[in-house]
Write a structure and sequence with these properties.
- There is one protein chain.
- The chain is an alpha/beta fold.
- The protein has 12 helices and 6 strands.
- The protein has a 6-stranded mixed β-sheet with strand order 2-1-4-3-5-6, with helices on both faces.
- Helix 7 (163-168) links the parallel strand 5 and strand 6 (173-176).
- Helix 2 (27-38) packs antiparallel against helix 3 (41-55).
- The longest helix has 17 residues, at 119-135.
- The radius of gyration is 20 Å and the shape is globular.
Amino acid sequence: MPTRLLYMHTGVLCNRHAQLTQFMNSQQYKRLVSQCTTCDPDQRMKLVDTAILKYFQFVMLSHRWGEDEPSLRDIEGHLIYDMSAKEGFKKLQAFCLVAFKRDFLWAWSDTCCIDKDSSAELQEAIGSMFVWYRQSSLTIAYLSDVPATGSLQNSEWFRRGWTLQELLAPGTVLFYTQNWSLYKNLTSSNHKTDKVVLEELEGASGIESQFLTRFSPGTDDARSRLQWASLRRTTRPEDIAYSLFGIFNLHLPVLYGEPAEKALGRLLAEIISQSGDISVLDW
């Protein structure tokens, strides 16, 4: 799980200790303790696992960064629902309200849930992000440039580097348009398995449907995976390599400031080392 999560009932950012404190003060915890004192010892661990997994279900936000995005320092110690009406804050508040209305207690956004002043934490977050999206109960993809009646295929979201893993990793994704309405008002529980949306996703991303619905990270068919990313861009050039670490299930050092060519070179060298496939050099 991510180190920090937003608690939907209050709008407070919680580190791991605060998350556990919330759990131990909850009705779910009291009910769990009561059940564990009377159940068969063999059932106790199953009860604990089930209760914790249910309580700590979390929602991830996938989006394009815009103006006035709130940082960790901006929201630490504050209630996000009471904060500034600047554009980035409004987006975070709307995301949290959607998560809250869907009965989730916890949510995560890359803008404010990572301490980007800590190189160690940034390294951990980049190395873990694919897993966090994979483990999420829901990923909300916010398409800020798609009006309520527009098409997701026209969104810049499909041309950004980091959103590739945010499309592939989660099991469940819902797309929201500019005004925070569900895409085409489709109320299916997962847009990645909705036939209408899946066909559009194939066209917009250039990725076949079987990979969109059942993607496994690794170096198999590495050349195709690199081609998926070839038309995407990142604000920092070296991020075009870092944003692919999770897709290839690779754990490499994050060295901000290195040339993009060197970052890509390290990535390609590791892919070839693990797969033996030199065709990736022609991606």
